[in-house]
Specification:
Elements lengths: L14 H17 L5 H23 L8 H38 L1
Helix pairs in contact: 1-2, 1-3, 2-3
């Protein structure tokens, strides 16, 4: 039996960083702009991205720095997702109130 070459060591990626970035990005891009749904889905996804981002950043040194960049990106997007969702809902409510006022005053 011929000698087989040694197996390559597995690259250790950061599932935490990828999860952080993915959930935050989905929350910001997909759900933050849909009324009512943004509070039910975008805010929780932003919080999940925020938590996973923090964990990815904290664990990055023990993994040789793998996932720190993804964790930071997910953290930033998670922080942006939450106020963007709330701000959009406030602006939408303000616009709706203004429209009702215009309709009632004629």
């Amino acid at each position: 039996m011929p000698d087989q070459p040694p197996a390559h060591p597995r690259q250790r990626g950061s599932g935490l960083g990828v999860t952080s970035l993915t959930t935050s990005l989905i929350g910001l891009v997909v759900f933050a702009w849909i009324p009512i749904v943004n509070l039910m889905l975008a805010v929780p996804l932003g919080l999940v991205g925020l938590v996973f981002g923090i964990v990815a950043i904290v664990k990055a040194p023990s993994r040789g720095g793998n996932g720190k960049g993804l964790g930071v990106a997910g953290l930033i997007l998670g922080v942006l997702t939450i106020p963007a969702s709330i701000l959009f809902l406030i602006l939408l409510g303000d616009q709706a109130a203004e429209t009702v006022t215009q309709m009632t005053t004629g």
